[in-house]
Every structure is written in structure tokens, then in C-alpha cells.
Design goal:
The radius of gyration is 13 Å and the shape is globular. It has no helices and eleven strands. About 0% of the residues lie in helices and about 50% in strands. With about 120 residues, it is mostly beta strands. Strands 2, 4, 5, 6, 9, 10 and 11 form a seven-stranded mixed beta sheet that branches. A four-stranded antiparallel beta sheet has the order 1-3-8-7, with no helix packed on it.
Length: about 120
């Protein structure tokens, strides 16, 4: 069974940094493109970043480009999201997702439970 688990969220002041982690088990991790999504209260789901199976290709939403960095360590079955220069509008539940078929999909088949990021003014 595919298991996806996020960690690293927390309460941070504006301008601070966090590193989110996502560990995947039950599959060959190298076969899966990976994605980060977020959902803020009262808003829809937003695709934040994507990374291809090898890490050669990445995508960032315009709202986070220049501040967020997605990476992966296939030897550890783990994907990361380094978040710098946090803004209050970054406050959201952040979700990790995996997709064997499609890079940067809008609807990956496998999701984690989410980790909360809260940014104070």
C-alpha cells in the first residue's frame, strides 16, 4: 500500500523559513513524480511545486517562485520543500502528492495527510 507522510510544518513569523519533508513508502519512489499542494481557509487547492522522477524538471507557482525550492533524495524516499521569506498568505495546509504517470498533474492519485504552516503577521 502506498503511504505518503508530510512533516515540518509549524508556526513561523513573517520572513521566517521552514523545510517540509514528505516520505513515501510502499512503492519504488524513483518511479513517481512528486508534487506539493496547499489549501488555505476559504480557498481552493493550489499547486505549489512539482518535481520529476529524477529531479531534472521542476515547476513553481508564481505566488511562490523565488521563495520556495523543491528537491528530492531518492535514496531516502523523501521529497522536500524549502520555504523562505514566509508571508501571511502562505498560511495553509500543505499536502504532498505522488503520481507515477504524470509530471505536475492537477490530480495525483496518492496524497498525504497534510502538515500545517501558519505565518504570523
Amino acid at each position: 500500500q502506498v503511504q505518503v507522510v508530510e512533516s515540518g510544518g509549524g508556526l513561523v513569523q513573517t520572513g521566517g523559513s521552514l523545510r517540509l519533508s514528505c516520505t513515501v513508502s510502499g512503492v519504488t519512489f524513483d518511479d513517481y513524480a512528486m508534487d506539493w499542494f496547499r489549501q488555505a481557509p476559504g480557498k481552493g487547492r493550489e499547486k505549489v511545486a512539482c518535481i520529476s522522477r529524477s529531479g531534472a524538471s521542476t515547476f513553481y507557482a508564481r505566488s511562490v517562485e523565488g521563495r520556495f525550492t523543491i528537491s528530492r533524495d531518492n535514496a531516502k524516499n523523501t521529497m522536500y520543500l524549502q520555504i523562505n521569506s514566509l508571508k501571511p498568505e502562505d498560511t495553509a495546509m500543505y499536502y504532498c502528492a505522488a503520481d507515477r504517470q504524470t509530471y505536475c498533474s492537477d490530480s495525483p492519485p496518492y496524497w498525504g495527510q497534510g502538515t500545517q504552516v501558519t505565518v504570523s503577521s
